Amino acid sequence: MKQIRVGMIGYKFMGKAHSHAYRDVPMFFPNIMQPVMQTICGRDAEGVSLAAKQFGWNGYVTDWNELVQRDDIDLIDINAPSDMHKEIALAAAKAGKHLFCEKPLALSLKDSREMLAAAEAAGIKHMVGFNYRFAPAVQLARKLIQEGRLGKIYHFRGLFLQDWIIDPEFPLVWRLQKNIAGSGSHGDLGAHTIDLAHYLLGDIQEVIGMSETFIKERPLPGSMSGLSAKGSASNEKGAVTVDDATLFLARFANGALGSFEATRFAAGHRCTNSFEINGSKGSVKFDFERMNELQVYFTEDAEDVQGFRRILATDPAHAYAEAWWPPGHTIGYEHTFIHETVELLQAIEEDRQPVPNFTDGVKCQQILEAVELSIAERRWVRTEEL
Ligand code: SOE
């Protein structure tokens, strides 16, 4: 069995999710290229050494420059904050390493295009971490659309709703700082919905949006910097430089109309990542908080039993399901990362680009920026303008 030696940068939320995926591959997908958890990298020696031990890495380093140059590393996996993606990706591509980068790919469209160009010039494989594509129920939605079973598609309605910063005293963590995160709910949550829309319906032609920063100033963070930083704040305040919520309308190349809403201010919604798609022959509805299910409606059903029905995407007929448990035994968030990793490993093994790759990352960035331009200029913006 072929092996690939991984060097991973970042060991917090995404670092843990990716590490877990590498660990599960040998057990559940033993017949594909296998990852070797060679070296993990983080700035804080104590933190990264603990993570290395806990997550099962062979070793750790504190300097990513050193990591990308090492001869015993074939793939660089970037889970660092968004402002570091580009620099690391360019250096790693130059060193001939394959790349796996968390979303959003970069802070700007320009930077993401540079990253794609560098990856293409280096002839390496590249993947971007839009993990929600890999929920079997989402893949079923795509299959139904591709096979024409929903007919002509009229509507895409996408929501990504969270509420973790609704408290004005929640500290100004890096995700609320434009220079590090690029944008707020738009690039963090909306990016996922945009990618799902691309995956399910195809290209977006034009957009018009609106956004708001409800809480303009927040206490500077204390020792904690992640999503659970609540209560860890200093008395000093700083400006929030990203959007708290961004909404936009879109017209797809296939003629469908789309509406998108990303917010961190939807009280009671911890992680409502959902979409509904309506076509001439039926509809599908997905909600990540019930990620094993796809609600499906077909106009051709007999009149007396018409209505949405719940498909549990855990049967052998569903993507990745056979690798897991018997039908009806459900899977979770971490499985989206495992499936994404499987796609990456299979693509490298088969000498093809994984999907989604940096091209998809650039396409997403283009829509993020088109929406921002539309907000700044208060008008419809065509994708091709950017
Ligand atoms: C936090 O808002 C976050 O973890 C995002 O960064 C992820 O991309 C999303 O999957 C869930 O929410």
Automatic annotation (TrEMBL):
The alphabetical list of record keywords is: Oxidoreductase
| UniProt cross-references to InterPro entries, sorted A to Z | Gfo/Idh/MocA-like_OxRdtase_N, Gfo/Idh/MocA_oxidrdct_glycsds, GFO_IDH_MocA-like_dom, NAD(P)-bd_dom_sf
Q: Using the record's annotation, list all stretches that form the GFO/IDH/MocA-like oxidoreductase domain.
A: 138-284
Molecular function (GO) terms listed? nucleotide binding; oxidoreductase activity
Query: Gfo/Idh/MocA-like oxidoreductase N-terminal domain location, by residue?
Result: 4-130
Q: Which domain of life is it from?
A: Bacteria
Enumerate the transmembrane spans.
Answer: none
Name recorded for this polypeptide = Gfo/Idh/MocA family oxidoreductase
Q: Taxonomic lineage per UniProt?
A: Bacteria, Bacillati, Bacillota, Bacilli, Bacillales
